[in-house]
């Protein structure tokens, strides 16, 4: 039997990895993947809690998150493709037209 | 038709609205017809309402109509309500009748003007406001009309605003009237606070029943009268009227002779209960009137501009009306107001016809000998001059006599003397105008290429009609000498305005009338000697009495005094405020806050790097801080 805390450690590690990847990487595509990692870290935490507390709500929320993430992936990738067509680049440092 | 009496002001009002909004697109013919027929409709309505009131028994109720509720505050309310009683019916008849004739005259006089539509729009608008003033049921609505006619007066004096003198004259009229109107509005407030109603019947009966403390009645009456000195051009606020002659001549006839300037007299008659209740206020009214009657007449003696003579003459004649009101003969004041509207309107229009014939020349020194060239204008001008001078059996004789007799009978012998002196001066300066303009050798205009011609029928027909009225209007108010009930005008108004009855024996009255006639004859004879028989005499007289002459030509230097005491300090003060307060404090605060906002913007702009990771970092730090704050 794996203790619940192990799942939390893994989830936390996954989340921090996602955050670090987001800051370290400079192209939109990779940063986007980092966001997905963070989302899944959250999912893992929900599942662990659902199992530990013996309730179904956590699992339901995970299903919702997966659905929303799928929709978000569609839109996000579409934006990235359009940005690339416009600018021939998806480097976030190149996309700073809105500076003050 | 009398039920439709509330349309009397609305007809010209509607016409003015149409002309202001669509005037540019309408033909001159249409504009002239529309503006004049609006006035004609008003006149017909006024006449039928007048007949209805005249047939009704003495104490019958006045025609009233509440158009809409207006100011309602607690127990106080002031609706937009119109009233036509015997007093306002007389005034409405004068305004619409003379106004209609002047509208017709204007279609000829202004035929060549570029701003034809604007002229008639403002003339209609003026009539609208004047009728609101006349027919208002309460003093608050009257004040609306009072200010409205002031506005139209400003617009029409400055009608030819390209001329700096006209623009300046309009502004002067407006500003001088502001002084009077400030007092007027305070007077209105005093009445509203103490009577708790603005209705004229309420005010008059409160004053008559002694519900108003004597001090309050006097205060209100004097404050309202200060407003009247502004509007009716009395001492000390008369200075705007001579300058107002910069406007088109029909405007001078309508606004600055026949109707608007007499609004003050009408107001005093409207509130005759209030004025009769306050002896001090009546004394002020009578003495201001007396002083104005003589002072303005002396200033008229040396004017060389034909319209300016008439302007000073108007000031002086309104002074007579106030003498009448001040001594308690309100009906006599109204009587003179009516006859004056006819003969002064006539004189102005005839002067306009002369000016028109000479292509805009107003200086009498360059006229002369026009008698033969203006076969209609000359006789009607002569009729007007005779009427105003008090030649027996013309309208001015009867109305002036009614005022002077009342003053004498009331024991105001000094005022009576002032009135007589004014009568000599009036006869003199009017016949000076007649001799300088129409008699003698032609001066200056002869030989110029302008063809001198009599005016078109649109102008001469109103002149003839006004001349007829100037002759016959007096017969509605004959003195008691002609029988006990001869004063039909006075009896007609007896239930509406107060009157202080004094009785003189027939012989005394006849003697006074003879004396007045002698004064008129003396004035005319003097003018004949100085300006017809021995035209070199006036010049010699002027050089003999240089001080007096200079004082009169300088109009007692009142304008200069006002300029030094009020206008220039005010201008200098405003300049100082502009330099030190406006430019430094107000503009400084404004510019300072603008540049502060700019600086702040530039500073905050540094935070907007446009880099996604900066924003997410801020977001991360914020989240961590927030969670730390919540959880720990």
Question: Your description of this structure?
Answer:
The complex is a heterodimer of chains A (100) and B (632). By secondary structure, chain A is mainly alpha-helical. Chain A has a domain at 27-90: Helix Hairpins, CATH 1.10.287.3510. Chain A is built from three helices and no strands. In chain A, α1 (4-24) runs antiparallel to α2 and α2 runs antiparallel to α3. Chain A is elongated and about 50 Å long. Chain A starts with a helix and ends in a 13-residue tail after the last helix. Chain B is mostly helical and 632 residues long. Chain B has a two-stranded antiparallel ribbon with strand order 1-2. In chain B, β1 (63-73) and β2 (76-84) form a beta hairpin. In chain B, α3 (86-109) packs antiparallel against α19, α15 runs antiparallel to α16 and α17 (395-409) runs antiparallel to α18 (413-438). The N and C termini of chain B lie far apart (90 Å). The A-B interface holds A 19, 22-23, 26, 31, 92-93, 95-100 and B 604-613, 616-617, 620.
SSE diagram, text form:
The complex is a heterodimer of chains A (100) and B (632).
Chain A: H1 4-24, H2 28-53, H3 57-87
Helix pairs in contact in A: 1-2, 2-3
Chain B: H1 7-22, H2 28-55, E1 63-73, E2 76-84, H3 86-109, H4 116-135, H5 139-157, H6 164-195, H7 200-208, H8 214-231, H9 240-243, H10 249-258, H11 263-270, H12 272-277, H13 279-300, H14 306-326, H15 330-357, H16 377-389, H17 395-409, H18 413-438, H19 457-472, H20 488-493, H21 506-533, H22 537-544, H23 546-553, H24 558-605, H25 612-631
Antiparallel strand pairs in B: 1-2
Query: Termini distance of chain A?
Result: 55 Å
CATH architecture of the domain at 27-90 in chain A: Orthogonal Bundle
Describe the strand arrangement of the main beta sheet of chain B, using strand numbers. Answer: 1-2
Q: What is the general shape of chain B?
A: globular
Largest sheet of chain A: none
Number of helices of chain B: 25
Low-confidence stretches of chain A: none
Please tally the β strands of chain B and state the result.
Answer: 2
Largest sheet of chain B: 2 strands, antiparallel
| SSE arrangement of chain A, N to C | HHH
Q: Which stretches of chain B of 5+ consecutive residues score pLDDT under 50?
A: none
